[in-house]
Amino acid sequence: MKRYAAYDPPEYVNWSPDPALLGRYGKKIEEQPQRKAAVSALSPKDLLALYRGLLRFRLHDIALQRWVKQGVLSKAWLGTGEEAVTIGAVHALRREGESGDVVGPMIRNAGACHEMGMPIADMLRGYLATADSPTRGKDLHVGGLGYGIVAPVSMVGSLAAVMNGFALAFKKRGEQRVALTWIGDGATKHGEVHEALNFAAVQRLPVVFIIQNNQVALGTRFRQHHLAADFYGWGRAYGVTLLEVDGNHVLDVYAACRLATERCRAGEGPVFMAAETFRMGGHATHDVREARRTFDASLFETWGRRDPIGVFEEYLATGPALDGGGESDPAACEALNRRILEDLELEVIAEVDQAAEEALASRSGGMPAPEETATDVYAGPGEVLRKT
Ligand SMILES: Cc1ncc(C[n+]2csc(CCOP(=O)(O)OP(=O)(O)O)c2C)c(N)n1
Ligand SMILES: [Mg+2]
User: What's the pLDDT tens digit per position in 263-291?
Assistant: First the structure.
C-alpha cells in the first residue's frame, strides 16, 4: 500500500514486513480451531472486502488530516493503527440496513460507518457541518439507523447502555439481531459502563461489547488508570464469555466476532471481547507531539511494525490466489495478488478523493441556516424543541 510521509506515523512511512511477525500472524488463526473455521469460510472476495474496508478507514482519516493541514478543519480524531478492531468486527455482522445488526461506534471507530453503508462523503460532511450532513451541521458524531448505525454519544461509556436498549428490544421481539459497540480502555472507568455490562449479563442480552484497549485515554497511559495487566478477567467478573483478541489482526477480530454474534443469536449473549491495540497518533490531530512524549519511542516502533493494514496486505499477497483461480506457482501467485491489491487500492483512493470533493462542494452555499439550530433538538425527556 502507498505510504504518506506527510500523514502517516513515521513508523509506517518506510514500513516493511517483519517475517517473524507475519509467521505469527498466520499461526494465530491456525492455533484456534473455531476461529480457523470462521476464517476458512471466507472467500477471496470476502478477504478483499476486509482489505478494502481497512484501506477506506485509513484513507478517510488521511483525507481529514489533509484538511487539518490545509486549514479546512481545526482538528480531527483518527483511528490510525486501530482499524482492524473496527473493520473485522463490522464485517462479522449482518449488514442489512434498518433490519440488520446495529453498531454504536465511538470516535475511534469511524470506519464502522462506511462499512455499514454510510457514504464517506456524508461522514466528511459531518466534519464540515454542512446543511446536508447527517446531523444537518449540528454534530460530527454521525449515525443513521437506516444503516444500522447509532450515532456516537460524546460522553464516553454512555453508548454501552444505549446499545443494551437496542439489544433488549431485539430480544423482546424475538429478532435474531445483535447490537455491538466498542468501549475504550479509558471509558471502562465510567460507572455507567459497569451498569451496562452487568445489565446485559443478567438479562442475557444479544450484545457484543468490544473493549478496545489502545493503551491510552487522552494523555493518561493505560498503566496509570488500570492496575490489572489487561481486561481478560472481566468476563469472569460479570459471568460472561470473554474472547481475547489481537486488535491489530483483522482476521482474529473478525473470527472472534463471528463466534460472539452466533452466541448472541442463539440466546447465549452477551459476549465481551478484549482487544489489545495501540493508538499510533495523538488523541486527535492537535496533540500528536504530546503523545510521542507520553510513551517510550520503542512502543511506537513495536506497534508500528504491527500496522494492521500492512501486515494483512502481506498475508494476502503471499497467500492463495486472490482471483479464486488455481495459480500454484508461488512467485506468479504473489505477483498476481499484488496486482489485485494495488488495483483495489487505486479504486479506494479514487473513492475517497471523490467523496472529499463532494463533501467540499456541499460547503458552497450549503451551510445550515442559523434558525436550524433548534430544529430536531431534544429539550427534555421526549420533547423536541422544533420538528422539521
Ligand atoms: C464522560 C466523559 N468524560 C470525559 C470525556 C473527555 N474525553 C473524550 S475522549 C476521552 C478519552 C477516552 O479514552 P478511551 O476510552 O480509552 O478512548 P480512546 O480515545 O483511547 O479511543 C476523554 C477523557 C468525555 N468525552 N466523556
Ligand atoms: Mg483508549
Answer: 999 999 899 999 999 999 999 999 999 99
In angstroms, how far apart are the furthest CA atoms of the chain? 66
Kindly report the protein residue whose alpha carbon is nearest to atom 26 of ligand 1: 155
Q: Is 381 inside any structural domain?
A: no
CATH code of the domain containing 217: 3.40.50.970
CA 276 to CA 215: how far, in whole Å? 8
Cβ distance 261 to 198 under 8 Å?
A: no
Task: Give the C-alpha distances (Å, rounded to integers) separating 65 from 5, 77, 210, 240, 291.
Answer: 12, 9, 26, 39, 16
Pocket of ligand 1 contains residue 225 by CB under 6 Å:
no
Q: Are 7 and 65 in contact (CB under 8 A)?
A: yes
What is the pLDDT at residue 385?
66
For residue 133, report the distance from its CA to the centre of ligand 2, in Å: 27
Asked whether residue 213 is domain-assigned, the answer is: yes
Q: What digits encode the pLDDT tens for the residues 209-239?
A: 999 999 999 999 999 999 999 999 999 999 9
> In which domain, by residue range, is 236 found?
10-364
Distance in angstroms between the alpha carbons of the first and the last residue of the chain: 45
Question: Considering its fold, how many domains does the chain have in total?
Answer: 1
Q: Which atom of ligand 1 is nearest to the CA of 283?
A: 19
